[in-house]
């Protein structure tokens, strides 16, 4: 809430970290993909209200599942978060739910801590799913679990593929992209841990990934989302995008 009251330049730096990088680009560089989703303050405030628990609007952990027949019934629009082990997935989900401190999102220093699909219900509006990490210490039945979810969950509106903003795309991330493309799943790429990397290397990663997406993907939303769970950069915008893709932000006006 305090961020929304900051003067515009400081607010932009926190809410739109991708745009903050623009000042380091060479003149004439095409920045179209930096501005595809650019909501105004009213939309950002509406999204924030969805992520704030209150009377009549509970935000709850629902259940965990290792197989689809253990998953809760698909009643609401759904988004899922997936990424390599130790990419900061649980930390990001905890940051998204920071306005609902009663929601327990377990965060561990040990990679591969999440072994199940964890379902969180946001009032009567949507469900957010924390998926197990792939790669190091992934659950033995990871492929069967995740592929079944992605192919069978008809309420799934968008998959958020998390990539480490410090090191960029890795081999396992390429495999995840190929899987999402093969299944025809609409997804968006989120770069995490941007507080741990200098502006120059971060911009290099951003431009390289944008070029990769342009040449190799059809189902990925062209704009990257940059986030820091420590400094809270990009979290407001990501909340707004989640609200948008789940149908809870009917009109997203430009700033």
Automatic annotation (TrEMBL):
Pfam family for this entry, one: MMR_HSR1
Cofactor dependency: Mg(2+)
All copies of domain EngB-type G, residue ranges: 75-248
GO MF annotations in UniProt: GTP binding; metal ion binding
CDD domains: YihA_EngB
InterPro entries: EngB_GTPase, G_ENGB_dom, GTP-bd, GTP-bd_ribosome_bio_YsxC, P-loop_NTPase
Signal peptide: none
The entry's keywords: GTP-binding, Magnesium, Metal-binding, Nucleotide-binding
NAD listed as a keyword: no
Keyword Chaperone attached: no
SUPFAM superfamilies: P-loop containing nucleoside triphosphate hydrolases
Gene Ontology CC annotations of this record: mitochondrion
Family: Belongs to the TRAFAC class TrmE-Era-EngA-EngB-Septin-like GTPase superfamily. EngB GTPase family.
Protein name as it appears in the record: GTP-binding protein 8
Species the sequence originates in: Calyptomena viridis (Lesser green broadbill)
Upper classification of the organism: Eukaryota, Metazoa, Chordata, Craniata, Vertebrata
Name of the gene this protein is made from: Gtpbp8
């Amino acid at each position: 809430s305090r961020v929304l009251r900051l003067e515009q330049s400081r607010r932009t730096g926190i809410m739109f970290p991708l745009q903050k990088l623009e000042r380091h680009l060479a003149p004439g560089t095409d920045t179209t993909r930096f501005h595809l989703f650019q909501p105004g303050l009213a939309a950002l405030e509406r999204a924030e209200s969805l992520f704030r628990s209150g009377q009549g609007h509970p935000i709850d952990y629902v259940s965990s599942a290792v197989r689809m027949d253990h998953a809760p019934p698909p009643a609401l629009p759904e988004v899922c978060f997936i990424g390599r082990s130790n990419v900061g997935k649980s930390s990001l989900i905890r940051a998204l739910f920071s306005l609902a401190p009663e929601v327990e999102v377990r965060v561990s220093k040990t990679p591969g801590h999440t072994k199940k699909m964890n379902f969180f219900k946001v009032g009567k509006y949507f469900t957010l799913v924390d998926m197990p990490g792939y790669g190091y210490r992934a659950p033995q039945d990871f492929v069967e679990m995740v592929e079944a979810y992605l192919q069978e969950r008809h309420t799934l509106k968008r998959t958020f593929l998390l990539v480490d903003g410090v090191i960029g795309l890795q081999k396992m991330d390429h495999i995840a992209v190929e899987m999402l493309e093969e299944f025809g799943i609409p997804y968006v790429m989120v770069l995490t841990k941007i507080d741990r990397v200098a502006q120059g290397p971060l911009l290099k990663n951003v431009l390289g990934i944008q070029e990769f997406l342009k040449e190799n993907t059809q189902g990925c939303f062209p704009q990257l989302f940059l986030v820091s769970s420590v400094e809270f950069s990009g979290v407001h915008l990501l909340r707004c995008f989640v609200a948008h893709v789940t149908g809870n932000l009917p009109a997203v006006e430009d700033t």
